[in-house]
Amino acid sequence: MRLIVRDDAISAAHYVAKYILKRLKEFEPSQSRQFVLGLPTGSTPIEVYKILTNSYQNGEVSFENVITFNMDEYVGIPRDHPESYHSFMWRHFFSHINIRPENVHILNGNASNLEDECLQYEAAIQAAGGIDLFLTGVGEDGHIAFNEPGSSLVSRTRVKTLAYDTIRANSRFFSNDINQVPRMALTVGVQTVLDAREVVTIALGARKAVALQRCIEGGVSHMWTLSSLQLHRHSMIVADEDATLELQVKTVKYFKSIEQVALEEGFEQAISKRLRKALGEKHACHALAKSAAPEPALDNMGSRIRNNNITFVG
Ligand SMILES: N[C@@H]1[C@@H](O)[C@H](O)[C@@H](COP(=O)(O)O)O[C@@H]1O
Fold first, then answer.
1. Looking at ligand 1, which atom is closest to the CA of residue 45?
2. What percent of the chain has pLDDT over 90?
3. What is the dihedral of CA 122, 125, 131, 136, to 10 degrees?
4. Which atom of ligand 1 is nearest to the CA of 173?
5. What is the C-alpha to C-alpha distance for residues 231 and 220, in angstroms, rounded to an integer?
6. How high does pLDDT run on average in the chain?
7. Is 7 one of the catalytic residues?
8. CATH class of the domain defined by 2-247
9. Which terminal CB of the chain, N or C, has fewer other CB atoms within 10 Å?
10. DSSP the chain
């Protein structure tokens, strides 16, 4: 797992947006080879969506050959309710870019058979070739998507009852009236997220600090489902300083020093190359096929420089 720390929320959002743009550029999506992007809702990714929208409007990126899968949706509120995740995504992102409506996937919280809806969603992800990059947020209780504390770490898309803490936290979107917040949601599972080729999480503000501490410095636990990212080969958390408030100073310094060394030694290029390889396994990526250079070995202990070769943890 990588941890990237930026001074404030805007800088963190810029880092994430630029990272996604870089991945899209490297991938060169086309009609026969579409990029599959997993997306979250919540206040945290809004700035990322704004930056991606601006990039589209400036002609820097196209979403024509991007397929999206959203993480979750409330059960039982109308699709056009202003706080449904469907409305959220179109309001903050999809309406402003050139994505094809048929490429947008958002769970239907009003389906007559919710279990079937979840099964079909998993099947649709498979049919798209799996998710290339899953962007996620994190709840105050450490949940990823709506995988509340106690969720199975091998769970897949399903119906979930929301934790009281989440209902309380999300009441700010429902006129601060806890009674208006739906009690249930459909959500991708922890394993659905872990199956993505890459996971990028953005965590902003002091209210995420405890969750971040548990997920980075604690062990893998179903009580803090974001901690499952410790098991992923290509996971990265991008946080602002406030979100790191509960981490040990030495933890933050450690990850900052890794980033510094990595920048100096071309780590970014090494990661890009390794990810292109992972994507190439699915898409027969022509760019990587050209490269005959050996991959750097993995080292579970962290970033190391050996004979000018960098090894790194995923
Ligand atoms: N299901 C969503 C999560 O996907 C999101 O990460 C979380 C944090 O939201 P915010 O970014 O508003 O703090 O809220 C909800 O619970």
1. 11
2. 81
3. -50
4. 12
5. 8
6. 89
7. no
8. alpha beta
9. C
10. -EEEEESSHHHHHHHHHHHHHHHHHHH--BTTB-EEEEE--SSTTHHHHHHHHHHHHTTS---TTEEEEESEEESSS-TTSTTSHHHHHHHHTGGGS---GGGEE---TT-SSHHHHHHHHHHHHHHTTS-SEEEE---TT--BTTB-TT--TT--SEEEEPPHHHHHHHGGGTTT-GGGS-SEEEE--HHHHHTSS-EEEEE-SGGGHHHHHHHHHS--BTTBGGGGGGG-TTEEEEEEGGGGTTS-HHHHHHHHHHHHHHHHHTHHHHHHHHHHHHHHHHH--HHHHT--PPPPPB-TT--EEETTEEEB--
Catalytic site includes residue 148: yes
**Could you read off the pLDDT of 79-116 as tens digits, one per residue?**
999 999 999 999 999 999 999 999 999 999 999 999 99
- Ligand 1 binding pocket, CB closer than 6 Å: 40-44, 71-72, 137-139, 145-146, 166
Domain ranges of the chain: 2-247
What is the average per-residue pLDDT within 278-307? 43
Expressed in angstroms and rounded, the spacing between residue 290 Cα and the centre of ligand 1 is 41
129 alpha carbon – ligand 1 mean position (Å): 26
Q: What is the pLDDT of residue 116?
A: 98
Instruction: Write down the pTM of the prediction.
Output: 0.86
Report the atom number in ligand 1 closest to the C-alpha of 208. 13
Name 62's bridge partners. Answer: none
Query: Is position 117 annotated as part of the catalytic site?
Result: no
pLDDT at residue 303 tops 50:
no
Q: Please give the distance, rounded to the nearest whole angstrom, from the Cα atom of residue 286 to the centre of ligand 1.
A: 37
Predicted local confidence at residue 267, as pLDDT: 62
